[in-house]
Amino acid sequence: MILRFLYWAAVRLALVCARPPYRETCELCCLKHLGQARALLLEARSGYPLHFWYALGHLAEAQDEISAGYPALAEKIRAVRKKIERRPDYAVEFDALVEEVSCAAGLALRPEDFR
What we know:
Blueprint: H1 2-18, H2 27-44, H3 51-66, H4 71-86, H5 94-104
């Protein structure tokens, strides 16, 4: 009985250790989460205070989506989230974050892309 338990415990541990520590990088997913975080923060500051917590969740997801391929950008997003946690009125430069992520990923858009 004990040996069977130890065997299955070892199998589970091996499966957990075999998984990559991060999800695959998805730059578009990161950008979408940043956009959603921005919209939710605006709503939180316009009379919907619970949306603040949802915005924090989207910032955490944006960080996770990009952490494997762009750890420095993931850390920058994390730092923004931590600042907002301490100061909910902190003015986030979302345009700069979105531009940095999109340029790093080769996804930068130009005005002529919309004509």
